[in-house]
Amino acid sequence: METERWARVMDVSALLIDSFLWKFRTEKKWTLKAIEQLTDEDIVWRPAPENNSIANLAAHIWGTVHQRVEIVFFDVPDTRNRDKEFDKGLVMSKKEALELIRKSFDILINVLEDMKSKPELLLHRPYVNMPPLTYSALNNQSTVLEIMMQMVSHLPFHTGQIIYIAKMRLGKINWD
Known about the structure:
The protein is mainly alpha-helical. The chain has 6 helices and no strands.
């Protein structure tokens, strides 16, 4: 009976991982497609002085993925400077914005691809022995499942902003 229960849990875990992968691949694809059609000037343009530019949003997506996922799964030092992500004078080229988006989503996709063979890791609590998290809906007791659920809800908010700004600049995005 216990083996059957565990098999069902693993089936649900596999479905969750596949769903997360689909969502992150989709967000990556459409965000890159929008940015590719822009100029360097478009990347730093902001709709109003108090709004973020695509440069800010790309930096923030990278900072979020770096701090919440990369440092845990790839054992790299936390170099995030959240205030700089929102600096109104942040300058970034189109090439740099594309690279940050690619790198951010590739980290998430790689972690989840690796997790396919170890779905039980969704219940792992990777932040337990780390300093308290800041600027996060997560805490030190959060599981990998909660981390990924937070990523799948948070990142599309910002990729949507990027696509909206791209539409403002282009009038229409070519999705072909």
